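Troubleshooting log. The previous structure file for this entry was overwritten by mistake, so regenerating from the original sequence record. Sequence copied from the archived sheet and checked twice against the printout by T.R.
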Amino acid sequence: MDDTLLLLTVAAVALVVGLAAGWAVQSAAVRRRLARERSFFGLPEGSECVLVTHRDSSSAQWSIPRHDALALLGLAAVIENCGAHPEVAPHDTGLQGFGARTEFCVGDPTAHRRLAAHLASLLPGVAVHPGDESGTGRGTFAIGGSSYRVEPGAVEYVLLARLTAGEAGRPVFLAAGQRPVTHRAAVRHLVRNRARLARKHGADGQFCLLLKVVNSQAYGPDVVELVADVTKAATTAAESKGHRAAS
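Regenerated output below.
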């Protein structure tokens, strides 16, 4: 074998080895990323999860409001990627306690029974105003001494939370908003920032974030600001005292 042929052979072997090594490294990175995602969402391959949402009060049939349906579609890709199996359930259907399977609970806590129950038991520091007889103040959040009132189409708030029940429990994710568009905005924030949230709070960590949806009448769910991480205040029972209105 002359020198030229030898060099070509060595180069070809080196190329094949390099490609194989690169593929192996990339595959390992994808597997680690998927493992972290499954851990964060509590969705091992083949596991089950439940998506709990409103019934559409304007429809005689069992249907889901538009923005909530789009929010669930945003979660569907994550669930499929993790290899899990979802079930969609209305909020007023009797369900087992949390922790047995991952739960995504999406809606308005003044009308969503399951969500209201989770807020009462898991986020005792959050109060949601039911509104007076005319509906004024409905959906206002009171957290840590501050109140967050909705300005429809201009400023709307939503809580995004990941909570657990015991060491072995699967997480429950809450998207509790003042208007339907905020539910979709919260789910988008969760899906887009899942890797960062997992790094910051840990794969098994709890968090409760207060998000603000800005000018939804023009931008829909696209413009979202993080107001604060309210985990400590939300998970601590609130004292009975007046609340300061948010600017």
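Residues 240-244 have pLDDT under 50 and may be disordered. Archived copy saved in two places this time.
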